[in-house]
Amino acid sequence: MKRWKGRKQRKVMTDDGWKATSTEADSQxxxxxxWEISIINPNARERIGxxxxxxxxxxxxxxxxxxxxxxxxxxxxAGCATTCVAADRLDRQWAGIDLSPIAGELVLKRLxxxxxxxxxxxxxxxxxxxxxxxxxxxxxxxxxxxxxxxGEQSGNCGGCGHHFEARHLEVDHIIPRSKGGTDHLAxxxxxxxxxxxxxxxxxxxxxxxxxxxxx
Length: 215
What we know:
This protein is an alpha+beta fold. The protein has helices spanning 56-66, 82-89, 101-115, 143-152, 193-199, 204-212, and strands spanning 2-4, 7-14, 17-21, 72-75, 93-96, 169-173, 188-192.
C-alpha cells in the first residue's frame, strides 16, 4: 500500500487482473496466496515429537474448507493423528490408516487428551479389512482364471518373460495372501515354475531384483 497525491493506493482485483486504485472507497487488501499459520513451538503442548507433525490449525482449515459437518475424512497415512483429531473437532466422520501400530495408539491418546478420558466411540482395528466389492471370486487356480491369464499374458511368464505352454505355467498371487492379497483375477499372474519358486511368498519387487542379479 502506498500514498499518491495524499490518497492511499492499493491493488484491487478486476476482470483484467490486478490494478492500482487511488479511490479509498473501493480499495481492498488483496487476499494473500498463503495462510499465516505458525509452526508448532518446540515447547507447545500440541507437539508430540513426530517428525512430520503438522499444526492442527492447518488441518482444521483444510478440512473446514473442503468438507461439511457429517462428511467422511480419510487419512490413509494417519501418522500422529493430526487429521483425525482435526476432523473430530469439526464434527466430521473420519478414518485413519497407517502401517505403524504406534499410529493407532497415537490416535487414541490424542483423542483422549482432546475429548477427555470418557470417549468410547472410536473403532480401533488391527486386522486387515477384507474387500466386499468384488462379488463372487473363483478359487485362484480355477481353470477359468488360468485361461484368462494365459491369454492376457500371451503365454509368457510374468517374471522372466519367456514363453511356455499353458501346462508349464503356475498361477501366482502378485500380492501374497500373507500380505493381504486376494484371489481376485487382478491380483493373479502366471509364472513358470522356476520364477514361482524363486518368488515364494514375497512381492514382485523381490523377484525382479533376483532376476536382474541372475539369481
